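Retry 2 of 3 after timeout on previous attempt. Resubmitting structure tokens to design endpoint.
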């Protein structure tokens, strides 16, 4: 078994995170993000995060192969400070190996320490594997956002899910 580390991302990780975006966006089916973020955009994003937000990466000694982000639900008012939103992105060959769960454990621990009470995720409706994964973590489907994603002229619904920490 390959030794995997889960840790909070640093600015120096921006290029490898950007490379993961390139793969995910090229697949055109798992993320609503359809254009990869450049390393510079990723650096700017990492620097913009508050002490209550973060990106958690999964890596071996040679490669970052997945990450999960945690952002505040809204930055314009403190009445949503108890709610965070997450997103998970894993390179294809690493999916289904338990990395997703390891990332979630780390993200949930961090979220609890930072005072979050609830996490939200949006999952493309055709990504049934991810929907099942989040259900197994305890997320509950709360609704469907019709035609929420439009990539290459094709619409897809998004499933809105919540989890109480």
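Retry 2 succeeded. Sequence:
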């Amino acid at each position: 078994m390959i030794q995997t580390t889960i840790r909070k991302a640093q600015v120096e990780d921006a290029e490898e995170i950007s490379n993961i975006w390139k793969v995910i966006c090229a697949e055109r089916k798992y993320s609503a993000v359809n254009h990869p973020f450049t390393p510079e955009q990723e650096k700017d994003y990492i620097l913009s995060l508050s002490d209550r937000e973060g990106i958690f990466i999964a890596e071996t000694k040679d490669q970052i192969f997945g990450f999960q982000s945690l952002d505040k639900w809204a930055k314009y008012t403190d009445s949503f400070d108890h709610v965070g939103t997450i997103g998970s992105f894993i390179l294809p060959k690493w999916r289904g190996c338990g990395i997703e769960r390891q990332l979630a454990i780390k993200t949930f621990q961090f979220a609890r320490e930072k005072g979050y009470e609830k996490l939200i995720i949006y999952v493309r409706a055709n990504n049934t594997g991810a929907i099942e994964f989040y259900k197994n973590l305890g997320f509950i489907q709360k609704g469907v956002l019709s035609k929420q994603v439009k990539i290459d002229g094709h619409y897809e619904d998004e499933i809105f899910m919540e989890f109480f920490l």
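Attempt log closed. The helical segments are 14-27, 39-48, 99-113, 128-137.
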